[in-house]
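Entry 12.
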Amino acid sequence: MPRAVDGTKRKNHRKKILKMAKGYWGRRHSNYKTAKDAVTKGLFYAYRDRRDKKHDFRRLWIIRINAGCRAEGLSYSQFIAGLAKANIEIDRKALAYLAMNDANAFKAIVGKAKSALEA
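Predicted 3D structure (tokens):
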């Protein structure tokens, strides 16, 4: 029996890859061989970056908290140490939100951290 090279499974697979490559530049969206490589690499980046996104957001939150602390005369590390001493458990995402959008609430938290450091 001859080998099937034009079967529906193969066509469907190629169509799926080319559909995923929609919007790619040059041959990468129309030529199966290059599209397959581009899609594979894109999927690899997507998988990796879903994990890296968590690190990126944590870095962003720390930068925002540090900026808010510096305006109040504290460094980020002193602020975090003060929170630990004052037994205040707020995650960095919430602290960054307060530093950006609610300056009065953030000032109150910084004040508690400062007083815990002095005590």
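Annotation: Residues 8-118 form a domain with the c-terminal domain of poly(a) binding protein fold (CATH 1.10.1900.20). The chain has a mean pLDDT of 93.
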